Amino acid sequence: MSSADILGYAAGALTAFTFLPQVIKTWKSKSAKDISLNMFIIAFVNEIMWLVYGFMLDNWVIILTNAVMLGMSGFMIALKLKYNHQ
Amino acid sequence: MSSADILGYAAGALTAFTFLPQVIKTWKSKSAKDISLNMFIIAFVNEIMWLVYGFMLDNWVIILTNAVMLGMSGFMIALKLKYNHQ
Fold this sequence. Notes:
- The structure is a homodimer.
- By secondary structure, chain A is an all-alpha fold.
- Chain A has a single domain, classed as Monooxygenase.
- Helix content of chain A is about 80%, strand content about 0%.
- Chain A is built from 4 helices and no strands.
- Chain A has helices at about 5-15, 20-30, 35-55, 60-85.
- In chain A, α1 runs parallel beside α4 (about 60-85) and α2 runs parallel beside α4.
- The longest helix of chain A is centred in the C-terminal third of the chain and has 24 residues, at about 60-85.
């Protein structure tokens, strides 16, 4: 593996968990007034696109990264709708 | 260009603007209490990694996408720090 490959895998692994601190914060605080619903709707739709792209290329790094992000953005949409007014 | 290429470019273009609705919302509302600072710090560091990766591969799709996201996550960090208690 080249150093570019290693950096790419490390960057991809970190990308997958970008939303995790927000999920934990919103889950604990039960407050989501300041969160943009549109941001997570865009992310959700976008990750479906990336998943389809990953399957077309049979690239499991893309598939796994975006499966994790799809789950987290879906969960954030649910938290936003539940805790919007608190 | 294959249909996979077209989907990849469309997905990448959408990814670049994922944070935009949050930037606009926080800018207008001047309230960032519910926003996770850690999420945008992770995103900021992660986009520097992707930028380096993009330059190593000389891939301008990766470079441009992550330059946009780096700017937006840096701006969100500034907004979070400014409006955290409002």
